[in-house]
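Appendix B, example 12.
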Amino acid sequence: IALGTGTTVIEGNTISDVQTGILVPAGASPTIIDNQFEETTTGIRIEEADTDAVIEGNRFCGNDSDLVVPEDSSITLDPSNEICDDG
């Protein structure tokens, strides 16, 4: 899912077997909640450090990377997100 700029709500989806589950471009401030990311290369990729993205209540299972952000970003996965024990 490649988002446009502005605000968007992505809720309740299962995203699997893709390169990037959700791509958040510069200028986007999405709410990404209650989704499941399975076997992706990257679950969520944030392209710009300055965003008001809300990332809560998602489940990440078997991904190479769950969340990829720019080096200067303060965005982290909220504790309400779940990382599956793949081992």
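The chain has a mean pLDDT of 91. The beta strands are 9-11, 14-16, 20-24, 31-33, 36-38, 42-46, 54-56, 59-61, 65-68, 82-83.
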